[in-house]
Structures
1.
Amino acid sequence: MRVDLRSLTTQVERVSRHYAERFGITRSSDWHLLKLHEEVGELTQAHLMRQGQSRQKGLSAADLDARFAAEIADVVCHALLIAAHHSIDVQGEIERKWLSRMP
């Protein structure tokens, strides 16, 4: 199954726009980049927790796995939001930079 990143980006953009309106956030270039950094930090924390290198806060192995997966999704979605903010076609760039080199 091929993921349609353009459609996914449109859907993620809709969710983010609603979130920003609800909380009075201006989604500037800086906000997008800083939000991605926040999410990468949360992913890092989830990874360390899964690896036993950070407090696990009483979470089960399944909870830690779920948290890690959710943070991966957040990082991917915020990367898509940055791209959309700068009118970058991520799907086209992936096809150009990565998939064109497939053996």
2.
Amino acid sequence: MSKPVTKVVIPAAGLGTRFLPATKAMPKEMLPVVDKPAIQYVVEEAVNAGLKDVLMIIGRNKNALANHFDRVTELEQNLEKKGDQDRLDRVMASSDLADIYFLRQGDPHGLGHAVLRGRKHIGDEPFAVLLGDDLIDARDELLSVMLHQQEKRDATIIALMEVDPDSIHLYGAADVEPTDEDGVVKVKGLVEKPAKEDAPSNLAIIGRYVLKPEVFDILEETKPGKGGEIQLTDALQVLAADDEIAGGVYGVVFKGRRYDTGDRLDYIKAIVQLASDREDLGPDLKPWLTEFVSKLS
């Protein structure tokens, strides 16, 4: 019987080079998506799924992440004096979300290495990994479904999503077979960023994982792969190839709304989509967007 998942690792050590110069002094995870930094959406997702023990793997110059989730007494007192309860509540919310711990990655050796750094904190129990670049719309279930599947199957669970075959080279691609459950597949193999003609499917790994602790031993032995980094996909491939190690790998196929904030164009789209759906912004934004688009040639 699998132990319940209570902890989540959020790798946040990337340099954010695609957003330079904005990320020269500010972590990419702190870039605002409407009026919250991207990283807060990710932590809220974990908390909404019942995971309140959060370990962030950070790099240098990432102090803004810790500051964001800390108390800012002077600001809170200022808002309280002004009677601005709405903004005060929003500021306080980020400080009270979860028990958040921070650990330096050290040398940036890739996602697999970042996950491995969390070994002492996680211990001998299954855990979730949420990537800060991928935002999952709070109205669509994913992580809770993955946690249910992990408990049910006592296996590694990854999130998959159909993408345009022309874009599969940007992702890890999964070779799968159906199970007796709709929306859940058995993962037979994984390929990191394959060429279109080499991809086993157009099912891409998106940034949500529920891993068993056996992955740590495999990551210890995983050699640098694509890009000279220790790839988490390579370790998952080992687990997928042998069910005896830790029960194999299964994929939950997500068909909801996902926002990729790691790409500049998709980041802009995410802001527009989320703002359009907001009750406080949508009614004014949508007519303006319609008028703006009508003027485009």
3.
Amino acid sequence: MTTSRIKAVIPAAGLGTRFLPATKAMPKEMLPVVDKPAIQYVVEEAVSAGIDDVLIILGRNKNNISNHFDSVPELESNLTTKGDLDKLRRVQASTEMADIHFVRQGEPKGLGHAVLRARHHVGDHTFAVLLGDDLIDERDVLLEKMIAENERTGLSVVALMEVDPEHIHLYGVAAVESTDDPDVVRITGLVEKPTKEDAPSNYAVIGRYLLTPGVFDVLEHTAPGRGGEIQLTDALEELAVTDGVLGVVFRGRRYDTGDKVEYIKAIVQLAADRDDLGPELRPWLRDFAQRL
């Protein structure tokens, strides 16, 4: 089923400095996770939730991303001639899975500014924002639940995950009130990367948002915050007071590809679960772990 009124926005204008020198010429969103670039997993997630219109916000030197989602007639012709139809299908999948658009952010002024660049494309409709650093396992439901809560209430919805207090300073953190649904909370406030002592809860904001178009008006007058950037968190905090914002608590599998160690863990976990790679990889992993 296609969620025709909802479009997806994927900000991909960051510099990826944590992965230098690999990201000197290669966008971090194009770093491979097993055999697909990270951003393809994010687009596939949107498509699985019924969204077929995707806008990717690009920065300077990010042409590799648009190239990946474009057709490559020479490669496809070569694979056809060789009769390698499985690889041909996988190459064509990235081109055919959705209607993908691109816009440049220009100056890197923060996530809030990147989202604001989507205003013309999104128009007066609810839209999803999916961050490429967070991969949600395709076997677990998140975006569909967020869409359902928005359709039920008309409110913006943010994805939350319970995090160890020792790591809470790495996230935006929500102050929450419970509802009748144990997996849905009402957000009363947001704090960007607080200390463990100052955190209002252990509910961290992860990279999935379902936003009503009113967020654009808020972002228009949101002053630069932490790091001198326009923070989406600041706009959402204002929305929480004026309109109301819900949080969907995600209890499934999430892979953080924005951190080197977590990126390696994501590759290992996803590869180990695959039918074509797992049978050979899992025994090797057990043997390797015993030698440590």
4.
Amino acid sequence: MSTPHAVEIRELVKRYGRKTAVDGLKLTCRTGEVTAILGPNGAGKTSTIEICEGFRRPDGGTVRVLGLDPADPALKPRLGVMLQAGGVPPAVRAGEWLRVVARFYAHPLDPDALLALLGLTEHARTPYRRLSGGQQQRLSLAAAVIGRPELVFLDEPTAGLDPQARHACWDVVTGLRDAGVSVVLTTHQMDEAEKLSDYVVVIDHGRVVAEGTPRELTGAERQLRFRARPGLDVDQLLDALPPGSAAKESPSGHYIIEGQVGPQMLATVTAWCAAESVTTEDLRIERRTLEDVFLELTGRELR
């Protein structure tokens, strides 16, 4: 039975002793879309996902997954869950494990095809404990999607993967969405969220601090970026730019200029740098990225 929303969370609260990990969270994930949940370490992402998966119970609020309570046994065959680690017997062989998982579903995907898609065919007879971290990660992804679920939860699906494996995982996520499957993923890779997601939710300190499509969050404004020696006089550079412009050094040696970005601004900046004997590198015009938005919302300090 289809529902208008894959996940609906209202006023969710989760506490661990005196620490409140999730604090009145409100969140909706639409059916048939990829929703990325972003946030710094300790923001409440994993607690929220584990409650949706039925592994933890909330201390307050309501959660509905495909219209049901996450603890409802009827949800199990309809969900795919990829954990960050664990859940696979160390001695089981990769191909054997995937075939075992497939037997729990009425119409599973072909295990051999999934192994091939994720570059695991030659490791099908390798025990799980002897797989590399990236190979274990890919096997967990295969196990999460083999049952043709309606909704898939992916917690850091590409953590530790090399570029080739990462793109293979992206292809799987894109294929799920094209097939009408709802996907909820957490990731620290901002480019991954920007590329894959239809909707992005940024949470911090257990609450939503921003949400929208990647384009809505990043905006349409363009930026001029370049690298040069640290400590340029940004105020002096601003004096040469049109009124309404903004300039900052962030991080050290990296400069961002906003405003009426176009040929005239580009010429002004290059002329100023030449007059100041500043050698620039990687001078380019681009749109604000999701990483820029994330850092503006959550800060740059380590958690």
